[in-house]
Amino acid sequence: WIGDGVLCKCENLRLLDFSACVSLRRIGNESLCDLSSLETLVLPPDLTWIGDGVLCKCENLRLLDFSACVSLRRIGNESLCDLSSLETLVLPPDLTWIGDGV
Fold it and tell me: Can you give the pLDDT at residue 73?
């Protein structure tokens, strides 16, 4: 799993590709927040849990496609807040919980 706050405020990061991380199941709270240059995010299919505030303030992210995350069940509170450039959001069919302020 990715721990809390791990990559928070890595301002020059433009691409994150976790597709090869086949054992990744959880992304901890605020671990990918405030990545102001992030444009592309690729997540693994077996991801089940996204913590609170994970992608908050990723201002250049235009597309979030979770459709390949067939095991995703939870998106935490305020995980998708302040995504001012977001144009497209695709959620997986078996998602069971979306937190407050998402």
Answer: 98
Residue of 34, 86, 42, 82 whose CA lies nearest to 63? 86
Tell me how far apart the alpha carbons of residues 86 and 66 are, in angstroms, rounded to a whole number.
14
Spatial separation of the C-alpha atoms in residues 77 and 27, rounded to whole Å: 13
- The answer to whether the beta carbons of residues 32 and 5 sit under 8 Å apart is no
The whole domain housing 92 covers 1-102
Model confidence pLDDT, tens digit, residues 39-58: 999 999 999 999 999 999 99
Nearest of 13, 39, 37, 32 to residue 81 by alpha carbon: 32
CATH code of the domain covering residue 83? 3.80.10.10
